[in-house]
Amino acid sequence: MINTDIVNSIKEKKSHLDILLLIIIATSLLNSNFFYDETYSSYYAFCFSSILFIFIFFLKNKDIQIKFPILILGLLSTYIFVQSIFKNYLNLFSLYIFINFILFIATSNLFRLSNFNFIRLFRGIAFLATIESNILCFTIFKNN
User: Which residue, among 35, 21, 22, 29, has the nearest Cα to 108 in the 3D structure?
Assistant: First the structure.
């Protein structure tokens, strides 16, 4: 006999994709001299965390809807990406545009879900903004 509590807990399992969105935001705020330029560390962290989010989202959700304006944006970003590949000029910008388009599809479909926790996402964004502004104020105060 199947325990109905376990089945109900699996059905009501909340998605933690909002935490992954916060990780994308947090990693894009990082700046360090690890790469040849300070801003590239946040760029690479944004791209890798976005790819992780996209991969997990598409594994969990099979019902993906793409509306016409998003499709036009996708055709444009895909054109930029493919053209840069064929011209042997694949740079960071074309890769960034393509990752942002796929991230846009994933987040627009995520926000459409009824079980998405907007409150937790907004609180997390406010927390990250507070931390970043405090760090900025501390470094300005320290340098003066």
Answer: 21
